[in-house]
Amino acid sequence: MPELAQTFLTSVGLLFGLIAAGFLILKFIISSIKKPGRVARGLNLELFLILIPQDEYTEPGQQNLKKDRERVQTMEQLYTIFSSMVEKGGWRVFEFGQPYLVWEIVYIDNEIRFYAAVPTRYRETLIRAVHSVSPEAVVEPVQDYNIFSPQEEAGGVAAAYVMTSRSSILPIKTYQMLDVDPLNELGTHFSKLNSGENAVMQVLMRPSPKKFNKLALKVTKKMQTGLSFEKAYHQAIKSWLMPLKIKQEKINPTMTPQDQEVIKAIESHAAKPNFEVNIRLMVTAPDQSKAEAILGDFESAFTQFNLPNLNSFSESREKIKELVYEFSFRLFDENKKIVLSSEELASVYHLPHAGLKVPKIKWLKARSAAPPWGMNDGPYLGWNDYRSQQTVIRIAPEDRRRHIYIVGQTGTGKSTLLQEMIRQDVEMGNGLAVVDPHGDLVEYTLAHIPQHRWKDVIVFDPSDLERPIGINMLEAASIEERDFVVQEMMSIFYRLFPPETMGPMFEHNMRNAMLTLMADPNDPGTLVEIPRIFTDKEFMKQKVAKVTDPVVRSFWEKEMAQTSDFHKSEMLGYLVSKVGRFIENTMMRNIIGQSKSGINFNEVMNNRKILLANLSKGKVGEVNANLLGLMIVGKLQLTAMRRAYIAEQERVDFYLYLDEFQNFTTDSIATILSEARKYRLDMVMAHQFIAQLTDKIKAAVFGNVGSMIMFRIGVEDAEFLKPQLAPVFGPRDLINLDNHNCYVKLMLKGQTSRPFNMKTYPPVPGNAETVKVVKNLSRLTYGQEKEVVEQEILARAKLSAVAPAQTSAEAKFNL
């Protein structure tokens, strides 16, 4: 009998051994089948960087805590969106597992980043969900990051799973019970990391099966009969596994207050959407001991979720290679899953908000906004990227007539935008002028001139001393034009010289001199001849003979005739000191001293020519460049006004590009901006900061310009432009714009659009050989030989008769 019993026990043991071995073999086979599917599921995840705008709270502290909780609560709603992310059963689910999302907080490159990884089919759901939490957030697809050292043996790596100490049926402490946002403590540990140290909190989530909620309710039901949580939980598990073989034990129906609190907590926990979750912590550092210490700090941050008598978090250290493998491929580990409610999950991971007092977070630098519809015509300015939707930004010819204003610091992308606008105008056959104080804009344009437009190009380059192109500002075809020229020249002088060196007498004498030199339209004088008309009586009489204006004649025949030689000499000193610096400069004298301009501005504007003025300050000098630029703008304005005699339908659009426009405009810009659009002189004005503008020019620009393009600027300018951007953007956005990004208020079909963001296109490569060919063709066509020009100027101006004198006032200002 004992032998029989022994044989029976041996057989039973062998049977159980075979069953266990079979179970292990089956588990290995299932694991082998599932492993490729798990990896495939991980590889199918698409990674996104989430950037949230950094707003500021203005309310008292208690109000801020309420706002913090409201912000975190929105993450609960976000998670709820994914509570139905379940695929139907079958072989696919068996092989690949259920789909899941991954949320990550990453410290790398000395900043804290927030990521999400989602199956490709759910990418749009993720983007919409994030925007439901933060409408202005940017959800940007990115390449994966790498926190590990490229050298296998270099540095230390520490990692752990975060688990619950007791069954996940029992809740943990959530943000609703804490006095501060739980992410503050966790984020503080991230922000304390140094260069060479990296860390990640990785949270994988998928909807929990309904059986979890049923199990929780079954436990509470049993506890209501008087069982402790442990006994109720074990009986619920047994009844779940063996529903027909559970023996009911006698129980005491009396519940303690503590048990009642546990029941209430479990029911509240089960009432919310629940998710199966993996939480991993991964740290890399220069050495292993440092990595372990950092990991310990992060583990300690989870103690804030401890809920006495209920549940808490604990850590599970696994084989590092296996954990790194699962972390890197973002694999869901069935053996390390816990269940968290949407409230608990939002407490552990949520997107940053204004209440977080954590440095180094990678915030959204500048917001984006949707562009207007209907931009189907005209050259493109750039493109808008809003919520993964890209839109080309164009401006129609009729809207360009209201002018374009561009502002931005050096290097932000203004020149790139101008380059591409000019290049398109050239390709489309438009007429245009470019006034460039640096030279790069002109050089770029020359490299993009198509061969069929080579003959349309006029390159005005004052530094070309051998073949100077003349510009005579004193050319005028009518009395009205003469008055305009005189007024513009006076504005130019006031623009170039301090007002202390001007005065009413200077203006009076200069006006009469210029009006006299312009009296003969067939033989106009030049600025170089202004000193001569005061020193050469015969020349003065010759010019006055052509004057028909009695006021101007009276100036010479009465006022000047009665002025003593001493006062004439004193007056001459003031006059010569203004024009003398240009007359004495060979380069400038050979340009402004030619009686006939080498450029026919009527032909330029009406026949769609391309005028490129290279006024590089480094080659020409700042004052010289400003004078020439002011003269060119004045000539173009005068030419535009002549279009009053041309039928409106025959006026072609002409585009005037002014870089650093504050140097090339006078107070008459208000007239240009308000009236020039009728004559199709369409301006594109760019500069660096608002303080460069006088009050009158500032008022003229912001009162008349239709389209505004704003690149990154300083704090003071951002505050000034705040009304232009509200309510879509604020000063912080404008200050934080990246290079080649800008905000735009576009004139569209006669109406100003709401502000939106825009990125500029990169420059298009040009042809260096074209630059040489076009320059040479232009100088031969429009320039004059230096010797010929100098002989004419010497003969007309009689420069030897000029004896310039500098007054004490001039000397004071070093002029």
Automatic annotation (TrEMBL):
Q: Where is the Helicase HerA central domain?
A: 398-476
For this UniProt record, the keywords arranged alphabetically read as follows: ATP-binding, Membrane, Nucleotide-binding, Transmembrane, Transmembrane helix
The portions of this protein that span the membrane are: 12-30
In Swiss-Prot or TrEMBL terms, this protein is called: ATP-binding protein
Keyword ATP-binding recorded: yes
Organism the protein comes from: Candidatus Sungiibacteriota bacterium
- The reply on keyword Nucleotide-binding is yes
Q: Where is the DUF8128 domain?
A: 67-363
- Look up the coiled coil feature and give its residue ranges: none
Which molecular-function annotation in GO is an example for this chain? ATP binding
Domain TraD/TraG TraM recognition site as annotated: residue spans = 654-722
Checking InterPro entries in the record gives:
DUF8128 (IPR058441), HerA_central (IPR002789), P-loop_NTPase (IPR027417), T4SS_component (IPR051162), TraG-D_C (IPR032689)
UniProt xrefs under Pfam families: DUF8128 (PF26449), DUF87 (PF01935), TraG-D_C (PF12696)
